[in-house]
Amino acid sequence: MDVLRPTLVRIGGRVYRKNLIQEQPFPQEEDEDFCAGPGDCADDDPCDAFVVEETERGFQSRVEVPSPLYKYIIGKKGETKKRLETETRTSISIPKPGVEGEIVITGQQRSGVVSARTRIDVLLDSFRKKQPFTHFLSFALNQPAIQEKFLQFKEEVLEKCSQDHGVSSSLFQNPAKLHLTLGTLVLLNEQEIQKACDLLQQCKENFVDQITGGKPLTVEVAGVEYMNDDPAMTDVLYAKVRMKDGSDRLQVIADQLVERFVASGLMLKEWDRVKLHATVMNTLFRKDPTEERNNTMTGKSSFKERESFNGRNILKLFENFYFGEVQLDSVRLSQRFSSDTSGYYAMSGQLSFS
């Protein structure tokens, strides 16, 4: 690490330095920590991104933290918590494991409380990014007509291309879970899920209703494309999606939704624009039939576990395959690793166009 050019981390519009430490990490976690205090901001503005209250005994600051993240503030055998308290001369109160609540930082000096709170915020941001996503925003494409055409596509591919390297029935999406993924989220408690639901309703009022006019969007699903550089080594094959009227309204809604969720801190920015696609074949499905069907959006899948397939003939023979027309009338906040009575992902919330 170049100490004169440390890695910078942006959190809540502020910039912090990322410093290495020697403390033993949790299993599968990097051996690093973040250090920031009143004098550690990378700009000249005061660290006033949170509230510090004056009390009879000094100062305190409260931060809402989902219970699954408590362990990262406590550290192995309590080492992280002890170090933070010692170095900032504060006391840090953390709820019991599994109990939702607030972490309370108290100290006699305001600067110490500010330093402890800032360092906790940076730690939480770092470890939150390492959590597997729990929910995702999606458009459901599992209408009966689309499912029927998808099963026809699957049957014809296996009939005409099963001799091609790696092509098998285990590669295909579950027709009941056909969808467009807009973006993934890490929602670790009911409060965060509710926050995402509230934001969906705000988006409806702020721009979605104006774009849709309160009516469903008519979309065509047609043609297939691949995501790799070499079609002979394909990992993901997807169906292309477009507005039937030729407009870009679906793209605009997708991009603006992701922009609002990124700005709220509920979603990480991964692409400049949302790639509108419906995965129909994925080599991740081969290894585990229950594998989540949205990993193409996260870039976090383990490619060493993949066995690519030769998609050249599929692309040639099914380049313009027509999966059908569908009416999109809502954006769903879908729960990973779940199913509802229709076979689609269980819904935690939704934004309805009508």
Automatic annotation (TrEMBL):
Domain K Homology stretches: 57-125
Family matches, as InterPro entries: AKAP7-like_phosphoesterase, ASCC1, Cyclic_Pdiesterase, KH-I_ASCC1, KH_dom, KH_dom_type_1, KH_dom_type_1_sf
Zinc listed as a keyword: no
GO-annotated cellular components: nucleus
Keywords for the protein's UniProt record, in alphabetical order: RNA-binding
The protein's name in its UniProt record: Activating signal cointegrator 1 complex subunit 1 isoform X1
MF (Gene Ontology): RNA binding
GO BP annotations listed: DNA alkylation repair; regulation of DNA-templated transcription
Transmembrane segments: none
Tree of life domain: Eukaryota
Gene3D superfamilies: Cyclic phosphodiesterase, K Homology domain, type 1
